[in-house]
Amino acid sequence: QKTDKPPKGAVIFIDNFKNTSLDLKHWNYDLGDGCPELCGWGNKEYQHYTKENVFLRNEKLVIKATKEKDRYFSGRITTKDKIEFQYGTVEVKAKLPRGKGVWPAIWMLGHDIDENYWPGCGEIDIMEYVGKTPGEIHNTLHTKDSYGISKNTKITTLKNIEDGFHVYKMNWDKNQIQFSIDNEIGYTFAPKEKSDTIWPFDKPFYLILNLAVGGYFGGFEVDDTIFPQEFIIDYIKVYKTPTM
């Protein structure tokens, strides 16, 4: 499904992945297993992130999860310190991996995370999927107010979401954050109170694309017969929302 083109002059960032390699003017690699500061990337995930598991193919970004002997490998990239923005629309066209144990995500963290530790920095989950529960897309906002409590979250059930490419979109302004899939609105977060613990979303955030394996959310039981699995991104667009 084609989506509307961003209005002229409104583009903050677009990557159509038409180069031969990842554009490091905009992207960083996260590498390793998160140790020593955040072993298992804070969720007891199994994968070890490498540069080799992130590559471009046929003008698309591929994040590939593999298993070699008793180790899992995958990829994670971010725009930290390179593309950070406050308010706007994020639109990502992507195809999900499948199978028990995969956990792909399109998400954002507050730019001040190094000083204002999670969840105080805020987290916006534009798309999370776990292979153990097929057909479900998770949208979640992590804040101090919702830490450890599954509020500010919505599961949208879509049969066959694993088939083909779908457009995941997030509209964010000073009043609300709204999520949609293929232009169907799934969840809107618009709290009346905008204190720091409830609404840490009044500052720049950066983007993260990754494919985790296992962990608290992905599940500790992994079907090793599914590998390799690929999370494929056709494009990512960030633009000022027309109403802003």
Concise description?
With 244 residues, the chain is mostly beta strands. It has one helix and 18 strands.
Average pLDDT, rounded to a whole number, is 94
CATH topology: Jelly Rolls
Give a short account of the largest sheet: 10 strands, mixed
In terms of DSSP E residues, the strand content is 35-45%
pLDDT < 50 runs, ≥5 residues: none
Query: What's the structural domain tally?
Result: 1
Number of strands: 18
Percent helix range: under 10%
Helix and strand sequence:
EEEEEEEEEEEEEEEEEHE
Backbone structural class: mainly beta
* Overall spatial form: globular
Termini, distance in Å? 25 Å
* CATH hierarchy, class: Mainly Beta
Helices, by number, come to: 1
| Rg over CA atoms | 17 Å
CATH hierarchy: architecture = Sandwich
What does this structure look like?
This protein has 244 residues and is mostly beta strands. The protein has a single domain, classed as Jelly Rolls (Sandwich), CATH 2.60.120. Helix content is 2%, strand content 43%. It has one helix and 18 strands. The chain has one helix spanning 215-218; strands at residues 11-15, 28-29, 47-49, 54-57, 60-68, 71-74, 76-78, 84-85, 88-95, 102-110, 123-128, 136-142, 153-157, 166-172, 177-181, 184-189, 205-213, 229-239. Strands 1, 3, 4, 5, 6, 9, 14, 15, 16 and 18 form a ten-stranded mixed sheet that branches. Strands 2, 7, 8, 10, 11, 12, 13 and 17 form an eight-stranded antiparallel sheet that branches. The chain is globular. It starts with 10 loop residues before the first strand and ends in a 5-residue tail after the last strand.
